[in-house]
Amino acid sequence: MNFAGRTAVVTGGSRGIGRAVCLELARGGANVALCYAGNETAAQETAAAIEALGAKALAVRCDVSDAAQAESLVSQAVEAFGTVDILVNNAGITRDGLLMRMPEADFDAVISANLKGAFLCMKAVARLMIRRKYGRIVNLSSVVGLRGNAGQVNYAASKAGVIGMTKSLAKELASKGVTVNAVAPGFIETDMTAAMQEAARMAVQASIPMGRPGAAEDVAHAVAFLASEEAAYITGQVLAVDGGMAM
Ligand code: NAP
């Protein structure tokens, strides 16, 4: 994919899938502004890896669930690189637990980071993209947003919400040269899934038709395609990258 001259904002770019997306876009020549919640070391390491690929990087500490910080992330990217062509809403968290035992605060935290965060970042770039009549927005949903999962009512709600939001904004921006799509990963090896108990990991793995977990790079390739010029006639879609889990 050729992203020469393009600027991407990738939320949660310090680790896992976000990091792989940053590197994939940088490999194609994009300038990348990545944000992180608190892991400065990982963010600086990703920024250095982007620069080692010959692209420009900017690491910004930003809680995407805070409107002022989301706006500041986008304005810092514009200040550094001139504009924003691509937004990848990847930042996400889990606070798992069965409904009966789930504290309200855990529901709110997951909805704020995963759903409201994507809303605020889309709001921060929309005017810019409409004015330029060009934009690619890719939102990270999940197989859990498509199928649900016991112990994840908060996370499933946030990821199903991301799909509804993606399709709605795709309709709002379809005539403006801006596409809005979602990628729904299955079980991908990152810090997020490393936190799962072994029995749960084995159970999930048994439900994957391909019989193995995915890698962050598997997801990054799909995100990069939807962020590319070649995907110009694709909008409002949800692309599962899950070894066949959601079919
Ligand atoms: P991860 O390894 O846990 O990384 C999460 C990233 O999000 C980190 O960069 C973290 O920053 C950042 N982040 C968290 N809360 C944030 C906030 N409020 N503001 C800004 N950044 C924030 O996660 P992952 O597995 O790569 O997942 C990436 C995305 O894919 C998430 O949306 C997740 O729900 C989705 N997904 C993952 C899987 C999977 O199997 N891994 C499956 C389906 C969907 P710090 O480094 O500073 O903490």
Short key terms for the protein model shown above:
247 residues, alpha/beta, 7-stranded parallel beta sheet, 7 strands, 48% helix, binds NADP nicotinamide-adenine-dinucleotide phosphate
Summarize the structure.
The protein is built from 9 helices and 7 strands, in the order βαβαβαβαβααβαααβ.
What do these coordinates show?
By secondary structure, this protein is of the alpha/beta class. The chain is 48% helix and 15% strand. It has helices spanning 16-27, 40-52, 67-81, 104-132, 143-147, 153-173, 191-194, 198-206, 216-226, and strands spanning 7-10, 31-36, 57-61, 86-89, 135-140, 178-185, 238-241. It is globular and about 45 Å long. The model has no long low-confidence stretch (mean pLDDT 98). The chain binds NADP nicotinamide-adenine-dinucleotide phosphate. The site of NADP nicotinamide-adenine-dinucleotide phosphate (NAP) has 33 residues, from helix 1, strand 2, helix 4 and helix 7.
User: Which band does the percent of strand residues land in?
Assistant: 5-15%
Helix vs. strand class: alpha/beta
Uncertain spans, ≥5 residues at pLDDT below 50? none
Helix content: 40-55%
Radius of gyration, CA atoms, in whole angstroms:
17 Å
Largest sheet descriptor? 7 strands, parallel
List of distinct ligands in this structure: NADP nicotinamide-adenine-dinucleotide phosphate
How many distinct beta strands?
A: 7
How far from one another are the termini? Answer: 27 Å
From the spread of the alpha carbons, the general shape counts as globular
Rounded mean pLDDT score:
98
Number of helices: 9
Write out the strand line-up for the largest beta sheet, numbering strands in chain order: 3-2-1-4-5-6-7
Strand and helix order: EHEHEHEHEHHEHHHE
